[in-house]
Amino acid sequence: MIGQHRLILEPREVPLGGVRGMNVLRALPHRNLPTIGAWCFLDRFGPADTRMRVEPHPHIGLQTVTWPLVGEIRHRDSLGSDADLRRGQLNLMTAGNGISHSEYSIGEDPIPLDALQFWVVLPDAARHGAAGFERHTELPGLTVPAAEGADAEVTVVLGDFAGVLSPATVHTPIVGAEVVLAPGSRVRLPLRPDWEHALMLVEGDAVVAEHPLDRNGLLYLGDSREEVEVSSREGALLFLLGGEPFEDDIVMWWNFAGRTHDEIAAAREEWEAASDRFGVVPGHDVRIPAPPLPPVRLMPRSRKL
């Protein structure tokens, strides 16, 4: 049993070079916590005025979940998908055994851009399967009654929250939900006690389980909770993530999620060899090369909580 926790996971700034030339804030994975449920990665890119150009690059063994806050992003992939994405919409790409994709901001000039991007590690039953892409322009929502002030509004982005299901495809018991609190409100968000959860403060101010959160702070709550109290003085936008604890040890390197060093090394070699495994993203004549593997064997990330 993981048990209840109240641990703030401070994000770290990570430079992303090349043609994108921008920094992101990375909250997950954390050195003590490789996954929260099946969530294995969380970046916030922005807010910034930028010209985003992420050329084709590969993925295996995971799903990418893109949740824009400001601006528009164009997604293209080796399945032939070509979709623009904006606030309130979800792009979900399932890598399976292999896919490649690109991400561009809309237009040729810098634009205001802000988004959350998550990765969800796939279980054995799905990680060797076919790749897929989904775009959801309408997502279900619900109202959580307030103990004080106005009620909270929740959008269920992925999985299941309080019995409301997102239409997006999932492969493990999971939740990803945006929570909007009005100024002066206090609510108790229902949780599944057999799942672990965390809450990220995206904008505004919030106190979660008696802990004040800084912007971009991620509070890990553990499991064994039926609810969590959240309050805000000026109003807040938060993101809830969680799910059934992911039991498999995973090896993460670059854009790959696997189980062993050899599996990761083979995927890297196939990408560098332009193998059919990752296909070709139409409309591009360059792609991102894989970095060199480290001089030691890649080991699974271990949970210390």
Which geometry do the CA atoms define? globular
CATH superfamily of the largest domain: Jelly Rolls
**H-E string:** EEEEEEEEEEEHEEEEEEEEEEEEEEEH
Computed structural class: mainly beta
**Rg calculated over all Cα atoms:** 19 Å
CATH fold name of the largest domain: Jelly Rolls
CATH architecture assignment name of the largest domain: Sandwich
Residue share in helices?
A: under 10%
Number-wise, the strands total 26
**Low-confidence parts:** none
Described by its quaternary structure, the protein is single chain
* Biggest beta-sheet profile: 8 strands, antiparallel
CATH top level class name of the largest domain: Mainly Beta
Structure characterization notes:
The chain has 305 residues and is mostly beta strands. It has helices at 124-127, 261-272, and strands spanning 4-9, 12-16, 22-28, 39-50, 53-59, 62-70, 73-77, 82-85, 90-94, 99-105, 111-121, 132-136, 141-144, 146-148, 152-161, 164-165, 174-181, 185-190, 196-204, 206-208, 211-213, 218-222, 227-232, 236-243, 251-253, 256-258. The strands form five sheets. Strands 1, 13, 15, 16, 17, 19, 22 and 24 form an eight-stranded antiparallel beta sheet that branches. A seven-stranded antiparallel beta sheet has the order 2-3-4-11-6-9-12, with no helix packed on it. The protein has a five-stranded antiparallel beta sheet with strand order 14-18-23-20-21, with no helix packed on it. The mean pLDDT is 94. Residues 178-274 form the Pirin C-terminal domain. Pfam families: Pirin (PF02678), Pirin_C (PF05726). Residues 24-120 form the Pirin N-terminal domain. Belongs to the pirin family.
